């Protein structure tokens, strides 16, 4: 797939600082060691400029990229609270014009992360004129403020240097965790596949035609967790990756079907709970 570079907006209106320091406080703050501490109240208190429902934009400049941050979600409240606590200040320091969308899978059937991301795209475009979509797991936070939450000339892998893999890429084709697509890119690839149920593969199948931020900037921390019930590894997903090209046009945004169960505006995010069905 070839992406058209001229379609990429730049952020020339908002001044981007060239030499941000590593966002040290991220490495100093307590993470999930102290489970008594719930950071959501603190996050609300510290982010008065975020509108109800989780949208924020810089006051003194116009950001040319309008960013929807989409989080696939089920039963990870604690991680979400930590994520909000870290990420709202991070995104505001980067002068982002952004909205946070938590897309929750309703029911008990196998988790389908990629389909939830497609739902996030489909719902976010109804809300605001977003032109950049960043899909983020709820348990990953970047460790360096220079890792810009912006779209780029190609779909961008933003967190390939994870602490849990010793800051190394575990395998070449990895494309997951945090990825950024312009609207044009996402439409061009027809979104993610809807047919990856259970853990593994769904994002890796788009690894061709991507770019990666330099590995020191894209260092990220993953909150520790056990494999979730309903998201067990699905070995069939590995075989599906090889058929990605033949499926791409028919399986994705163009074939997306879901039912919205509820929309809830929270103080720092918008949650959309959806029924996305179950595997055949
Ligand atoms: N998730 C939930 N609830 C679940 C399962 C998954 O909210 O029950 C979401 C959540 O945002 C999570 C994401 O899906 O962060 C990914 O699931 P995971 O945390 O189990 O994945 P893992 O940390 O792998 O094991 C992350 C990426 C590394 C390899 C990517 C290969 N494509």
From TrEMBL:
Pathway: Protein modification; protein glycosylation. Its EC number is 2.4.1.-. It is a single-pass type II membrane protein. GO terms for molecular function: beta-N-acetylglucosaminylglycopeptide beta-1,4-galactosyltransferase activity; cytoskeletal protein binding; metal ion binding. GO terms for biological process: carbohydrate metabolic process; protein N-linked glycosylation. Keywords: Glycoprotein, Glycosyltransferase, Golgi apparatus, Manganese, Membrane, Metal-binding, Signal-anchor, Transferase, Transmembrane, Transmembrane helix. The keyword Transit peptide does not apply. The keyword Glycosyltransferase applies. GO terms for cellular component: Golgi cisterna membrane; Golgi membrane. Residues 156-222 form the Galactosyltransferase C-terminal domain. It is found in: Golgi apparatus membrane. Residues 40-152 form the Galactosyltransferase N-terminal domain. Its cofactor is Mn(2+). Belongs to the glycosyltransferase 7 family. Responsible for the synthesis of complex-type N-linked oligosaccharides in many glycoproteins as well as the carbohydrate moieties of glycolipids. This is Beta-1,4-galactosyltransferase. It comes from Leptobrachium leishanense.
């Amino acid at each position: 797939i070839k992406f058209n570079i001229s379609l990429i907006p730049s952020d020339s209106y908002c001044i981007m600082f060239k030499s941000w320091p590593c966002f040290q406080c991220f490495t100093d703050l307590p993470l999930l060691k102290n489970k008594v501490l719930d950071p959501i109240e603190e996050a609300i208190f510290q982010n008065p400029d975020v509108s109800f429902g989780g949208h924020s934009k810089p006051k003194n400049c116009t950001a040319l990229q309008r960013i929807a941050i989409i989080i696939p979600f089920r039963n990870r409240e604690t991680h979400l609270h930590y994520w909000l606590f870290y990420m709202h200040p991070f995104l505001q320091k980067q002068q982002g014009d952004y909205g946070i969308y938590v897309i929750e899978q309703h029911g008990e059937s196998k988790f389908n992360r990629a389909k939830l991301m497609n739902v996030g795209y489909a719902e976010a475009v109804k809300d605001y004129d977003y032109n950049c979509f960043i899909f983020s797991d709820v348990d990953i936070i970047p460790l360096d403020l220079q890792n810009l939450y912006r779209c780029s000339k190609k779909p961008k892998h933003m967190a390939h240097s994870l602490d849990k893999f010793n800051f190394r890429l575990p395998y070449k084709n990895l494309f997951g965790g945090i990825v950024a697509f312009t609207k044009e890119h996402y439409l061009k690839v027809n979104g993610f596949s809807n047919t990856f149920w259970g853990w593994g593969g769904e994002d890796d199948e788009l690894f061709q035609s991507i770019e990666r931020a330099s590995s020191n900037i894209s260092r990220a921390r993953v909150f520790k967790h056990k494999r979730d019930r309903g998201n067990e590894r699905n070995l069939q997903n590995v075989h599906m990756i090889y058929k990605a090209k033949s499926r791409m046009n028919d399986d994705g945004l163009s074939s997306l079907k879901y039912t919205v169960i509820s929309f809830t505006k929270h103080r720092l995010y918008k949650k959309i709970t959806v029924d996305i069905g179950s595997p055949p």
